[in-house]
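ligand=2P0
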Amino acid sequence: MKATAKAHTNIALIKYWGKRNESIILPTNSSLSLTLDGFYTTTSVHFSEEYTQDKFILNERVVEGEQYRRVSEFLDLIRQQAGKSLYAKVDSTNEVPTAAGFASSASGFAALAAAGTKAIGQNMSDRELSALTRQGSGSACRSIYGGFAEWEMGAEEDGSDSYAVPIAPAEHWDLRVAAVVLSSTAKKVSSRAGMKRTVETSPFYQGWLNSIPTDMSQIKEGIKERDFQKVGEVAEANCLKMHATTLGANPPFTYWHDTTMTVMQTVRDLREKGIPAYFTIDAGPNVKVLYLPENEEVIEKTLRNIPGVADIRLSRPGQGVTYL
Ligand code: 2P0
C-alpha cells in the first residue's frame, strides 16, 4: 500500500480570494492558473497496519505541530473515502524553495492527494482527485492539471461540483513566468487570514466578485487565441483588484512592500519601451512577471537590476500530477 506522486505548483492569473465554506474549502469565486515546471513536490505515502499514528517527513525532517495536523487531517479524508483506518507514513521532498516566493501548499497537497489515494487503492478521476485536493488547500486543486486550469467554484453545499478542470495543456503555449524574489519578504497576514478578513469586512469585496465573470471569460479567450496582451492585461488588472480589497478591510492591510511597487513600475516601463510584460502578485510581496520566450534575456536582466531584488527564478508551463 505504497505510492509516489509528483505535483507542480501553480500561479493564479484569476485569483482565488475568499471562502464561502471554510471547513471543506469552497471558494466565493472561480479562479484560473498556470502550472509551473520549476517548482514541485514529490511525495510517497505508505499505509500500514504496523503504524500506530501518522508520520510526516518533509525534506528528511520529521514535522510536528500545525503542518503535521493539516497532513493528518487530510489523510483522514482519504481514509474516510476508502473506508479504511490505517495510519500512514508520508515522505515529501519539496522543490519549492520558500525563497522563490511560491506557496508549497499547492504542489504539496496535490502530490499528497495523488499518492495517498493511489496507496490506499482508490482509482479516482481527475475531477474527484481535484475536489479532494481542494480540501487540503484551495489553490492545490488546480495543480492536478498541467498548463492552464480553472477551479470552478460550484454551487453545491457539499462541494461535489467545486473542482478544477483543464483549460489548455502546457504544450498549448510557452507562456513564461519570472518570479521576482525580494530581499525582505516578511509577511504579517497569512493568505487564509487575509482572505477571511477581506470577505468579512471589505466594502470592496462585492466589487471584486462582480468583476470575476468578465475577467474569466476574457482570459479564457486570450489563452485560446494565445493573445499575450489580452491575457496579460486581464491577469494584471485582476491581481490589482484582489489587492485593492485588502485596503478596504478592517483593519486594513497590504501585502506590498516598497520594492513590490518598484517592480510593478519597472514592468510598466518595459511595456512603454515596447517589451510586452505583465505582473501578478499573490498574498505576499514578491512579484511574478509574465513574458514571452523571445524577451527572456531583457526581462531577466532588467528585473535583476532593481535594488531590493534578491533573485529571479524563471519558469515554463509545467505538467499535471504524475505517478512515479
Ligand atoms: C490563488 N492565493 O489563487 C490565491 C491568490 C493567494 C492569492 O490560493 O486556505 O493557500 O489553503 O485554501 O490556497 C493562497 O491560498 O489557501 C491562494 P487555503 P491557499 O493562488
